[in-house]
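TODO from last week: model 4-hydroxy-tetrahydrodipicolinate synthase.
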Amino acid sequence: MIRGSIVALVTPMREDGSVDWERLRNLVDWHVEQGTHAIVAVGTTGESATLGFEEHDSVVREVVAVANKRIPVIAGTGANNTEEAIRLTRDAKRDGADACLLVTPYYNKPPQEGLYQHFLAVARAVDIPQILYNVPGRTSCDLLPETVERLCRVPNIVGIKEATGNLERAREIRERCGADFMVYSGDDATACELMLAGGDGNISVTANVAPAKMARLCDAALSGDADGARALNAELEPLNRDLFIEANPIPVKWALYEMGMIDRGIRLPLVTLSEAAQPRLRETLRRSGLLEA
């Protein structure tokens, strides 16, 4: 299965909000060259909430084509409408994704039985490896470990992106579900410790701007090199903090724009990074060696 540094890739956009296909292709090639282990296309960081069905499918299809089996591609296909999630997951399988990432349904606040039935329905409908995604800070919906334990028995539900930052939660999931069920961090600040405690990788925002260093951190942590992993984590800590100075993906898209990697486009209701926050993030990028002093 997929392990290591998994970038939650931004979707590059021009200033008018249209997808910048050339920049998208360049980013995929760059991540392969920098040692990123896998890509999530059209997740939260990829602005999945504001892409239409056809755009969503097109971005996944393009990332798959450019990656060209050099590294795996995981398609974000979650939704708060079960039929919509099934459609997106079917499309991702058709378009060659290696796996799908499905966020918990947002806004409608299903109970645990509803969550179980939702993910079970998608898994039964589409035969592709599926990774659960728990991020209650965004969805107001918490997928509890006992529900994850029920879902891990479904053959093609293969792992979870646990974005609470709660290491005890991740350990409990590992204990309940066993070593064959993949546990990924969805929180850059605590990812190093989660991997050292037995996790399988980091679905990372920070990897968008520092892919090589994040890949080395994950390699070290997964090989049990705690000192090496923690040293690299200390270097990345300012980025892990300041790339969340405003709602993701506002800061990371602005950072990539400053680095000359993408245009400044972002879709409403998100807007570009506030002028008040820009000096702090710019200085962090400079100190991290990502911008010239």
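Done. Residues 251 and 292 are 18 Å apart (CA to CA).
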